[in-house]
Amino acid sequence: MTSGRPQRERVILANRRGARVIRTRVEVQEQTRVGDALVRGLVRAQLGLALRLAAVAVCAVALIPLLLGLFPQIDDVQLVGIRLNWLILAVLAYPVLYGVGRLYVRLAEQGERDFVRVVDGDR
Amino acid sequence: MTGAPLTAAALLAAAVATIGIGFYGIRLSRTTSDFLVASRSIGPQWNAAAISGEYLSAASFLGVAGLIAKYGADALWYPVGFTAGYLGLLLFVAAPLRRSGAYTVPDFAEFRLGSARLRKVAMLVVVVICIFYLVPQYQGAGLALKTLLGLPVWLGPVTVGAIVVVNVVGGGMRSITFVQAFQYWLKLTAIAVPALALLVLFLGDATTLAGPLPPVVQQQTTVTVETDVVVQVAEPAGITVTGDVDGVQVEGEAFAAPGRYTLAHGTTLTLAAGSATPVVAGAPSSGDDWLASGHGLGGSHPLYQVISIIIATFLGTMGLPHVLVRFYTNPDGTAARRTALAVIALLSLFYLFPTLLGVFARQFVPQLLITGTADAAVLLLPSAAIGGGAGAVLAALVAAGAIAAFLATSSGLLVSIAGALSTDVLRGRVRDFRVAAVVGGTVPIPLALLASSLELSRSVGLVFAVAASTLCPLLVLGIWWRGLTSVGAACGLVVGGLASGAATTLAVVGGVDDRLLGGWPAVVVGYPAAVTVPLAFVTMMGASLLTAGSRPPEVARIFARMHVPEHLGMGVERLPRE
């Protein structure tokens, strides 16, 4: 923005934002076609997110018995005196579960905020 | 037993604290909503501590360490699965279930599918799961009082039953929220302090758990067999036996050679210091086998066992009524998610310690592996390994934690039974809730005394399999799939419930002969989830597709209510008809 010119302003006669909010809220509540489509989109997004993160967790965890079954020599690897299979299952599995959970909470809340913005916002 | 008065005092203190905190909550409990869902006012931090306190049952406090001591690496899947279950709950159930506004699982079924008949079926499933789950808690209480104080086995179930009935009758959900949150921290302290003390001792001890031999006893030990058992003797030197071996009476003789022997009730084994412990048949006997993954938990087809345990525990938590009911006490869906996440953190912290204790049990009290009663390991470890005054104090602390475990889980289960029975069979008043609590708390006592006890974690694992085959598909499909119908849901509940319930009953009664058809019937009965969970999902979806005409007409509005954030004004709180 150059300093010489005055900033452009949007001039409106009345704030229509409130009316618009109520209309979209009513559409969601009354299950009009628009409202239903919005809800379907939300459900699909949240389910997709949950399934993707579940797949990440399952792959991370289910790989362990498979790898241990295919390569039994992993059992003999030791770190700080503890065998790798014990280290993975007794210690490392837990932060992975928490991390996936935390990521989900962040993204799911983000998804809900986006939904609310679509419903409440007038853009 | 030295330190018995101290242990008794600790048990008493934990019980009195439980009742005392419960009474503090009673002053706050007035309405039906207080009794059922604590008026939906519990924030994530209190709620997560309460859920963890309620969830860490006898199976976690005693059973996990026992299984690890006995079976080694593959038993580590139980604590991982018990924790991962909350990830499943967080991803697929927590927020929509809370937003549904339901107050019990049967109420959710009616809300979603609009069928009073389905509600009754769901109520029946809830009551069966809770009673199946109460039985091992009561058995654990009997085992603990017998191990610690030498009291008769029936006293544990009766005492625990009486305390939880009093608490639940008094204050319902409001009251037990405080009790359970307190009990999480008590249990964590009671297991962490002895585990850390033993860790110091263990690190100073130069012996290794690896090697071709089973663990050795460190001083002369005498073990009496209380129920007939088959043991694997790897190294007969130093062991003398008196009693009935393979049907022959012997008097102070040694085993002739390494091999399997059947020891009858009443037989005594004397192990000289430094002799290798016989191990109950089916458990890995050499240290190397115990440390390696892939040996399963006794019986054949170890990979199937592990996969089935993973399925049961990952999905079973989603179907545990006493856990689900706590999610209804959150103020909103966002808080429900944060609660589930906090529970994962609290459980991750807790389960480090039973794992440590399981390892130490193999080192310090290997004689427990002979009789197979490894569930007592956590209780016996402190006095056996540390001894003296410090050992007695730690033993008393562990005892207090154990009693907290039985009380917390039992009260949660009882609230669920009472909530379901009082609103669906009786008329839903506070008085009905109390009547239902008395009935629900008493019925499992005779069952606990009659049923043969598997290891605690395995009995609880079977209950997880039942929950994963019934309520889990109902909730997951109900929340995410518009095509579910009430007929489909009922078919799935019945088929999944009968299949997993039959397997559980068979396993508890004694299981199936391992030699039949390559061991598959035995392993499927012992670990049913990998078969019954897909069966329940397929039945529920198939029957729903066949009855697609009867989809509830309101499904779009119901989905909006479950998934749209609360502040858009869609939420409606359901309450029982007064």
Mind explaining what this structure looks like?
The complex is a heterodimer of chains A (about 120) and B (about 575). Chain A has three helices and two strands, in the order H-H-E-E-H. Chain A has about 120 residues and is mainly α. With about 575 residues, chain B is mainly alpha-helical. Chain B folds into two domains: about 5-205 and about 290-565, Up-down Bundle (Sodium/glucose cotransporter), CATH 1.20.1730.10; about 220-275, no CATH class. Chain B has 24 helices and seven strands. In chain B, the strands form two sheets. Chain B has a four-stranded antiparallel sheet. Chain B has a three-stranded antiparallel sheet with strand order 5-2-7. The longest helix of chain B is centred in the first third of the chain and has 50 residues, at about 155-205. The interface between A and B is large, with 46 and 46 residues.
Q: Identify low-pLDDT runs of chain B.
A: none
CATH architecture assignment name of the largest domain in chain B? Up-down Bundle
Q: In angstroms, what is the radius of gyration of chain B?
A: 24 Å
Cα distance spanning the termini of chain A: 23 Å
The rough form of chain A would be described as elongated
Find the CATH superfamily of the largest domain in chain B. Answer: Sodium/glucose cotransporter
Number of contiguous helices of chain A: 3
Largest sheet of chain A: 2 strands, antiparallel
Oligomer: heterodimer
H/E element order of chain A:
HHEEH
